Every structure is written in C-alpha cells, then in structure tokens.
Amino acid sequence: MTSAQKLMQDTIMTTSENNHWSDYELLDSGDGKKLERFGAFRFVRPESQALWQPKLSRAEWEKADGVFQETQNNEQSQWKLSPNLPERWKITYNNIDMWIEPTSFRHFGVFPEQAAHWDWMVEKIIHATNQPRILNLFGYTGIASLFAAQAGALVTHVDASKKSVAWARENQLLSKLEDKPIRWIVDDALTFIQREIRRGVSYQGIIIDPPKFGRGPKGELWKLETMLPQLLRECAKLLTDPLFIILTVYAVRLSSTSLNYTLRDSFPNLQGSVTSGELTITESSGHRSLSPAIYARWDNK
Predict the structure, then answer these.
(1) pLDDT single digits (tens) 201-214
(2) CA 289 vs CA 27, 159, 284, 286: distances in Å
(3) Where along the chain do its domains lie?
(4) CB burial class (10 A; 0-12, 13-18, 19+) of residue 88?
C-alpha cells in the first residue's frame, strides 16, 4: 500500500453537531421552511431541505417576530418584521457576545451550526505549544476570529466587505476583547494571500468560509467552483508548523467528499488527518436535523 493510499483510507465521513447553544434554537421545520429562535425572538426562513411536515401547530409558527418572504426571482425577497422588533440585539455563545440583526440576505450575522468548528478550533489553540497565528478568510462578522483570539491566538481577519468588518469590530467591543491581537483587513482574500506570501508571512491555522459568488473591494471576481483550488494552493504556501485548516462551504452542488479530496490535493505535504462531512442543526425536539453546510478539516494529529 502506498502512502497516498494510506492517507485516503484515513478519511472519516462524519456529521458535526453542536448542542451547547442557549440563545439559538431550531424550533421546527417543514413545508420548505424553518422556525428558529435567536435570543428572545422567533423567525421563519425558507429551507429547501425541509420536505417533511412541521411538528408544531400553525399558531406556534404565527408567533414569529419576522418572516423572510422569498420571491421566485429573489429580486423582491424581503423580511416582514414585527414593529416591536429591535434593530439589533445581543446573543451569546460560550462568553462571546455578538450582535444579531436580520439582513437582506436572510442571515443574521451568525451561522449557529459553526459552533462545532469554534469549539474544535479553541481546543487546538489552547493546547498549542506556542502562540499560533491564525488567518480567517471570508471572516464575515468575526465570531471565529473572536474565539481564536480569546483562546490565545494572534488573528488576522480578512473580508471584502467593509460593513462585515465593521460589524466584526463591534462584536469585539461587545465581547470586551478589544485588547486581543486581531488585525482587521478589508481586502480580496486571494489578493491578500498572495501579498502575505511575498512578505514571507506564515500562519499555523487557516479558516476558510468562502461564498459561492462574490466580488472584492476593487471588483475582484470570486467563483467558488473555479477559484477555490487556486486559493487553497496559495494558502499552502503560508503554513509553517501548522495546527489546523477549516474549510466550510454553503449552497453549492458539491459533496463533503469532494471537499476532502480538494483539501488533500491542495496540501500534499501535510501529514495529519482530514475529516469531512456535514454541519448540522437539530430541532429542539431532537428528532430531525438540517444540514446547512459541508466541511473538511485538517488536523495535525
């Protein structure tokens, strides 16, 4: 058996679940929708996976403080919100506070299923022999960056959206972590990586959570299916004494198996193991789960 064959046999297909939330809850799902609680407020959002019937009564669903109304062409999709709903409010996960608000993209500034990544990453950082440098690409509102910094890492957070980076810095202040070493960068992810390579900068951990499609601050085009392999190959040039790589993908026609192979192919010199699978959220009844994203993670063990 060759070493390459042995590495492929080390692949573990798994589902990564987290049940430690108190400020988030998937209350019910069905009829192409999901009913969720963020803090004290309930919301209904579209969910194409929910082909089954809801368990809760219509009266329970009608208690929602907001409903995202989706149109066929998405151009007129919008929130219908209760007039009593605040513009934003705070929720907490494991001592990290974050601002929540309904956005035009139907998100709230946090993806609760990623708590499984946060917990896993924190353990890796806490047990590192030296203070690791962590790069968070497509970092959005900064929750992963805050967990990494709180655990003791030196963090570089990169996102192309000024609004998202501003939101992330507000989350830092809200969590009283302004003294933690985080560099906040508004830039195109690939452009930033290539600049770091020229500078000779290295990292021990990389978090990658790319959109399906996007544009950088200078109009740089991003298409996941065609550009992700290049991005990963460039990331490989930044790693020294690596601890972990976390790759998460939403809303694409890819499998976790394809992410697994892509990650292995892009980092051929790494000797650890790769796990891949689905990030899931289970209804509070415990009976049904939704899988919003697929992932692959490399571990140095």
Answers:
(1) 999 999 999 988 77
(2) 11, 30, 10, 8
(3) 3-20+85-299
(4) middle
| Tokens read off for 166 | 């501003």
Query: Could you count the other beta carbons within 10 Å of the beta carbon of residue 27?
Result: 21
Do residues 23 and 39 make contact, with C-beta atoms less than 8 angstroms apart?
yes
Q: Is the distance from CB of 63 to CB of 81 less than 8 angstroms? A: no
pLDDT in tens, 44-83: 999 999 999 999 999 999 999 999 998 766 667 899 999 9
3-20+85-299: in CATH 3.40.50.150: yes
Distance, in Å, from the CA atom of 117 to the CA atom of 202, rounded to the nearest integer, reads 22
- What does the block give as tokens for 211? 């959109």
For CA atoms 149, 153, 159, 165, the dihedral sign is positive
Model pTM score: 0.91
